[in-house]
């Protein structure tokens, strides 16, 4: 049985869970884009953080990645923002804007 299944049973029957295992393996954007490829296809400022991501990453490997903003096991994220934590996402935005020479204000 996987850890997730064990946690589900422990939660249902005992009201407790085990601490999740910390993953140290890098999760590449390709893994995310297998299911979420269309997110990069919408142009415009309201989606520039997705549609320009590959371009930013080509300019600077320190630019953001999918999991930099969309952290799968963070519980402080806001549901209406697809479980993003605004303070964390803002830091990633600043990294991308710095990578493109735009600083904090633009790029």
Pairing-aware structural class of the strands and helices? mainly alpha
Terminal-residue CA separation: 47 Å
**Helical region count?**
6
Low-confidence stretches: none
How would you characterize the largest beta sheet?
none
Helix content: 40-55%
Give the ordered list of helices and strands. Answer: HHHHHH
Share of residues in strands? under 5%
- Any idea what the shape is? elongated
Average pLDDT over all residues: 74
Radius of gyration: 17 Å
How many DSSP-defined strands? 0
Description of the structure:
By secondary structure, the chain is an all-alpha fold. It has a domain at 26-99. The chain contains six helices and no strands. The radius of gyration is 17 Å and the shape is elongated. The mean pLDDT is 74.
Notable traits:
mainly alpha, 6 helices, 46% helix, elongated
Short note summarizing the structure:
The protein is mainly alpha-helical.
Describe the protein's topology.
Blueprint: H1 3-14, H2 29-36, H3 48-51, H4 53-59, H5 66-69, H6 86-99
């Amino acid at each position: 049985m996987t850890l997730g299944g064990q946690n589900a049973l422990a939660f249902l029957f005992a009201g407790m869970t085990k601490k999740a295992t910390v993953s140290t393996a890098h999760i590449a954007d390709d893994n995310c884009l297998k299911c979420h490829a269309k997110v990069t296809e919408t142009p415009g400022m309201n989606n520039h953080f997705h549609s320009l991501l590959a371009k930013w990453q080509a300019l600077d490997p320190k630019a953001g990645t999918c999991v930099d903003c969309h952290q799968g096991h963070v519980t402080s994220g806001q549901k209406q923002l697809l479980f993003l934590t605004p303070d964390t996402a803002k830091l990633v935005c600043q990294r991308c804007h710095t990578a493109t020479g735009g600083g904090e204000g633009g790029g």
